[in-house]
Amino acid sequence: MQSASPAPATSAPRWLSTPAAAYTDAALRLRLLGERFHPGRWGWIVPLAVTVLAGVLRLIRLDHPHQLIFDETYYVKDAFTLLQSGVEMNWPEDHNEQFAAGNPQPENTPEYVVHPPLGKWLIALGMAVFGADNGTGWRFSAAVAGTLSVLLTALIAQRLFRSVFLGGIAGLLLAVEGHHLVMSRTGLLDIFLSFFVLAAFGALLLDRADGRRRLAERLAAAAARHGGAPPSSLLRYGPWLGWRPWRLVAGILLGAACGVKLSGLAFMAVFGLMTVLWDMNARRVAGIRHWVRAGVTHDGLYAFVAVVGVGAATYLATWTGWLVTGNGYNRQWHTTHPPQSWWEHLVPGPLRSLGDYHRQSTQFHGGLSSGHDYASNPWTWPFMGRPTSFYYEGYDDGANGCPVDTCSAAITDLANPVIWWAGTLAVLALVFLWLGRRDWRAGAFLGVYAAGQLVWFLWPERTMFFFYTIAYTPFLILALTLCLGALMRFGGPANRRRNTVLVLAFVAVAVAASAFFMPVWTGEMIPYEQWRLRMWMSSWI
């Protein structure tokens, strides 16, 4: 028997590549971006289908109830005066019924408000189109923002998980999720914050892919010029990546998020750090030796300008109405408070007034501790311990068509329990996926969760509400979808088929739960016993 000839001593193991092979554009793109994903026509059909469903759920009977509910009493009326005067104005006490009747009579004095104006300007757009005397006008912009959020979630999930199927699941779950549905059908600010945060994340995903393509192209071009491998000098820090338009878009969107609510600052900080970490990892994978330092000098400084600098400019632009009209609250503060230091002389007077306005609002937010029946502690949010009641009316036999002894019509900001509690478990699973498998997607979702949930623990005495969690609700859905996708791929072919059935069964149960809770999300009149049947915890009442 002849023995096999030994392999030449110079041959490399099959899992190693020569520099000439490792630094081609194709090899670099494979390492940095993975296999190309081609969703085809279904990559648009499925996301658009769940978006249509979301639009139907959010737009039907949007004018019900025909009264200002919960904090609409502030933001809708503020939006009206923004249309009329360019700034928020004061209102008489108990003016809601008169406003809803189409006879708004604001006072001629500026109002002190604690939230920036962009969200109220967006509410005003709907009122400009549909009028200020009906709920469709008050809530239309919120419904559009919520519907577009479903489209973005489906597309983001499709790109992240390289699956049209999982993208459709993510979009469907958000489309029928009650917390998101209620906030999309109410003239409050938080749905706009959620939309801008989600859109900024999508822009950063596009920037991540674009930056990695640029890195591959520049390294491959340098390798081609130098005999198949980039020069050692280039591999120390790597190339400059130049113009990053999607990062600038993200900065604009994050500035807009802050222009809705200043809690957007937490997302700006997390996203700014996250995009630099993505760049650092890209340089490491590409073979850059000093990838940490390069991530700071070659990427981090420019990311700061794009995210924070552009975001700050965008935020300032949202105050244009206050700056140009001259009659907003605190607008003339600088005329009675001359500059006290040399640098204050360099700041235009209106900007000094705006700075003092922010000082006042910061003190207000930090000291907000007034009691409220539906206030809740952040510790309870993952368990949905105290959802917020936006509207409740009780009817006796015969009143308003009540067919039984007692009826209820309620709008409760109550999340779909199946989706919400499963999403909370998914967040815990993300910790293991991130630490055990170094899954960058899990790390990204955890970062967003920290920005939307954990940051509120910094002010334990402040009055807070469950609906603040809408800012990260789409990411809770994405985290859940990531775990469902991992379950589908677990085990051999037979197990995968069984697991896919389990995933579909979960989605079916979640949709059925939404159908069950729909009446208490949309203010439908139902028998009182049916309303109580949906209040699973006493703290939900």
From TrEMBL:
Its EC number is 2.4.1.-. Pathway: Protein modification; protein glycosylation. Residues 356-540 form the Protein O-mannosyl-transferase C-terminal four TM domain. It is an enzyme of class 2 (transferase). The keyword Transmembrane applies. Its main location: membrane. Pfam families: PMT, PMT_4TMC. It is a multi-pass membrane protein. GO terms for molecular function: glycosyltransferase activity. Keywords: Cell membrane, Glycosyltransferase, Membrane, Transferase, Transmembrane, Transmembrane helix. Coiled coil: none annotated. The chain crosses the membrane at residues 42-60, 137-157, 163-181, 188-206, 248-280, 301-324, 418-435, 465-488, 500-521. It is found in: Cell membrane; Endomembrane system. Residues 49-204 form the ArnT-like N-terminal domain. Belongs to the glycosyltransferase 39 family. Protein O-mannosyltransferase that catalyzes the transfer of a single mannose residue from a polyprenol phospho-mannosyl lipidic donor to the hydroxyl group of selected serine and threonine residues in acceptor proteins. This is Polyprenol-phosphate-mannose--protein mannosyltransferase. It comes from Citricoccus parietis.
